């Protein structure tokens, strides 16, 4: 698995988790979903992604998006 796919998989899991928390725990967890979406949007424009940096430190090989 490349870094690009790991970041996408992680973002998908976090979004699903935040939706489940919103539905079953408390409606204010929707702000977690908003935070994830904003982070994905800023990384699309800046190329800076904290999750990609962590995965890179864990030794996942780079793809073409996060170099």
TrEMBL record:
Keywords: Membrane, Transmembrane, Transmembrane helix. Pfam families: YgaP-like_TM (PF11127). InterPro entries: YgaP-like_TM. The chain crosses the membrane at residues 7-25, 31-55. The keyword Repeat does not apply. Residues 2-56 form the Inner membrane protein YgaP-like transmembrane domain. This is Inner membrane protein YgaP-like transmembrane domain-containing protein. It comes from Ruegeria marina.
């Amino acid at each position: 698995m490349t870094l690009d796919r790991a970041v996408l998989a992680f973002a998908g899991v976090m979004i699903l988790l935040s939706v489940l928390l919103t539905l079953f725990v408390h409606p204010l967890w929707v702000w977690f979903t908003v935070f994830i979406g904003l982070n994905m949007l800023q990384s699309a424009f800046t190329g800076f992604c904290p999750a990609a940096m962590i995965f890179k430190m864990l030794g996942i090989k780079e793809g073409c998006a996060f170099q």
